Every structure is written in C-alpha cells, then in structure tokens.
Amino acid sequence: MSKDTSGAIHERGYVYNFHFHLVWVTKYRHEAFTTPKLVAEMTDILTKIARLNEVTIEQMEVMPDHIHLLLSFKPKYAPTNIVKAFKGGSARLFFELHPEIKAQKFWGGHLWAPSYFMSTLGDMSKKTVENYIASQRKR
C-alpha cells in the first residue's frame, strides 16, 4: 500500500479513501422542495439520516426535484443500503412533516422515483490505478 494516504480515513484494521456521488429524483420529477423552508427541512432530514448511518455528507444540494450528495462511509456498509436509508427515511420523515404535499403531488405514496445514480470517486484516476497495478510485477 502507498505510504501517501492524505485524506484517508484510518479505522481499526483498515484505511479507506473513497467518495460516492449520489443523485436521485422525485417521483414524476414533481417539484417538492420549492421554498427555502422545504429545502432546509430536507437538508436537516438527510443530515440526521447520515448521522444515524455513520455517513459523512461532504456536500449536499437539495434541488426542487432532485438531490445531490457527495458521501463517504465505512467500507463495511453496502452502498445500496446507504441509498435505501436515505431515500426511505427521508420520504417517511418528509411526509410526516408535510402530508399536504403527499396528498397534492405524491398521491401514490412515493416521494422518490425508484431509480438513482451513484458513482465512486477517489484521489486517483482509473488510469493511475491501472498503471500502478500494471507496474507491480516489474518491481
């Protein structure tokens, strides 16, 4: 392993440095977060879910019809479980606060579309890692 682990998170028995870009949209792309108050409430909900699931939100943007998160979490957690925690928990908590929005725009009972986008990020590009692995046998 490289000695340069700047930005890495050190845990007992392992070190990691990866980040996930997660994006998901509201059902039918209906605009739900249309006021500063609604944006702040969803921001607070997502922050609470992150804390409960040992997730670090490095950056967040709540748009009228979608969410962008830059996340980091321990390798022991599966990315799909993190997505489920965010989407499921946020829908439940938001609808508890705003049953009127659920009735007006999300009558089917779902705040979020079933799909999402997630990509991984790191300090090194894919090409850098490919070159590093390819050079190992030559050492």
TrEMBL record:
Xref: InterPro entries: Transposase_17, Transposase_17_sf
Domain Transposase IS200-like: 15-136
Stretches that traverse the bilayer: none
UniProt cross-references to PANTHER family, sorted A to Z: TRANSPOSASE FOR INSERTION SEQUENCE ELEMENT IS200 (PTHR33360:SF2)
Protein name: IS200/IS605 family transposase
Species name: Levilactobacillus fuyuanensis
